[in-house]
Amino acid sequence: MPPLTLLDWIAFTVFVLCWLVYAYVVDRIPSIRANSVIAAMDEHRRRWMVASLGRDNRIADIATIGNLMSSTSFLASTSIFILGGLMALLAAPDVGRRVVATLPWAEAPNEAMWEVKIGLLIVIFINAFFELTWAFRQFNYTSTLVVGLPVDTSAVARAEAAAKVVNRGAKHFNTGLRSYYFGLAALAWIIHPVALMIVSLVVLYELHRREFRSAVREALHQP
């Protein structure tokens, strides 16, 4: 008997499409991306870097970058703890499967399916770790660039370069954060394939609502 049933394959396909297609549309299609919270924040960060040219004291700028690094470091560290827990579940499948079997409407997976489902979660949070640590490094690079900016409003090109670095860091931070969201969806697969489909669609809806139809998005797009 193959580890994945037809329903499992359908659920997994829905999950992958929700994640990858959404990420491609939001990140790669300029006309759509321009209306998102992400694009609005890119512009605000660019204005921030240009405005910092006129400040002799940049303690507030460095403190703000430090806040970005702290939240990124927290999530990267948390992903390591999650990976440790997942490895423990992979090493002791009987315990995890017994817990799942006690849940209402849960379909206790066999050992092969358990490894597939936990393996998917491991891949997701490894991706989150790499995305978040790369974002952390780019925020760190930004702090060096900001300190090196001259107090001269004519050096806009250097401020634009710093804005590109901090915005790339924010892009990878958002990608890592999406891994957390869809990691929660993948967790639902342990219960039932239908749960994976439902939670994947809920995560997709919530991401779209927050990035394109939220009050925050409206506020950030104000000129």
The N- to C-terminal Cα distance equals: 59 Å
Class of secondary structure makeup = mainly alpha
Q: How confident is the prediction overall: mean pLDDT?
A: 92
Biggest sheet details: none
The percent of residues in helical segments reads over 70%
Radius of gyration: 21 Å
Proportion of β residues?
Answer: under 5%
Secondary-structure element series: HHHHHHHHH
The total count of helices amounts to 9
Summary keywords:
single chain, 223 residues, mainly alpha, elongated
Helix/strand layout:
Elements lengths: L5 H23 L1 H4 L3 H15 L7 H33 L1 H9 L9 H38 L7 H33 L4 H20 L2 H6 L3
TL;DR?
Helix content is about 80%, strand content about 0%.
Word description of this protein:
The chain has 223 residues and is an all-alpha fold. The chain has one domain (6-23, 35-220). Helices cover 81% and strands 0% of the residues. The relative contact order is 0.17. The mean pLDDT is 92.
